[in-house]
Specification:
This protein is an alpha+beta fold.
Length: about 300
């Protein structure tokens, strides 16, 4: 594998093969510990459910409750195994070394001008599609706000998703670009909203807090076959991406874009989720194709101040 600036300079990590580092690297061990944790959680939930079942007087209802608890435990354990398999596959592609990028604030700049992910404050990218429940829209607002994380000044993006005009997700994302041109993802404050109220904060993380590590969301120079973590907090944020193509033409409501970068993205947490994303030079993300859910989210409008 040829030496790449993103690895050698910014990350100080080497993407070696699994064979070269053996079967018991830090990545594999981390996956095994996560599996144990997941299984323990499934067992804990099962025992708690059985305790609840004992409070039912009706024998038939109690038996049905116990059977449901067993079914839920089986599903949970199956999910644990699927996550483990996904993590092991990711380890096989990344290598077995720890994910511990060294962040030097002096190696970062204040402007994000990566051709495939320019984040100019005051710009809004609007995406929209029709799903079974109605019109889903996403507004990716690049704000003038900043947040300092691990000593690095990050650009704050306000990302909201609505369904038929009602907010379902409300997220703040933080990005920064290093001097080599790589765009790093430093965290997110993610709110899931149900009926106007926050129903979950799951997925929220900040680099440097509780062991969370930043990842690269867009390389300075991409090559087909590149594979990298975009974020890392075991059990919370485990997205990865692979570069698939460097010259795709994409037609969406906002226009026709040539020479697009195509990536394939998945997560150790959600093994069944598989997305293809297309980034146009000078614009950024123009299309997300969720091939696991058979849903496309195209760019429909670019709004500038």
């Amino acid at each position: 594998m040829k030496t790449r600036a993103v690895v050698l300079v910014a990350m100080t990590l080497t993407l070696t093969s699994l064979t070269a580092i053996g079967q018991n690297g830090a990545c594999q061990t981390s996956s095994q510990e996560a599996l144990k944790s997941c299984r323990a959680g499934a067992q804990s939930a099962y025992l708690l459910a059985l305790g609840q079942c004992e409070n039912l007087y009706d024998p038939a209802a109690r038996k049905a409750c116990q059977q449901q608890a067993q079914s839920d435990r089986k599903d949970a354990l199956s999910s644990c195994d699927a996550q483990f398999a996904s993590r092991q596959n990711i380890c096989g592609r990344l290598g077995g070394q720890p994910w511990d990028p060294k962040i030097d604030p002096a190696n970062f700049v204040t402007t994000i001008d990566n051709p495939y992910m320019p984040l100019k404050p005051g710009t809004t990218l609007v995406y929209a599609t029709f799903i079974d429940d109605g019109l889903e829209e996403e507004a990716f607002v690049i704000t003038h706000n900043t947040k300092v994380i691990l000593g690095v000044t990050c650009v704050e993006v306000h990302d909201t998703v609505t369904l038929n005009g009602q907010v379902t997700e409300d997220t703040l994302d933080w990005f920064a670009q290093d001097k080599q041109g790589n765009v790093w993802y430093f965290g997110e404050d993610s709110d899931e909203v149900t009926n106007g109220r926050v129903s979950s904060l799951h997925g929220s993380w900040t680099a440097g807090v509780s062991g969370a590590k930043p990842g690269i969301v867009m390389e300075a120079t991409s090559a087909v076959g590149d594979f990298y973590r975009q974020e890392f907090l075991l059990g919370t944020a485990e997205d990865v991406a692979a570069v698939l193509n460097l010259d795709k033409t994409v037609k969406v409501p906002a226009g026709t874009f040539k020479h697009c970068l195509e990536t394939g993205e998945t997560s150790g947490l959600e093994p069944d989720t598989k997305e293809l994303k297309y980034y146009a030079p000078g614009v950024g993300l123009v299309l997300t194709n969720d091939i696991s859910g058979n849903e496309k989210l195209p760019l429909v409008e670019i709004i500038s101040e």
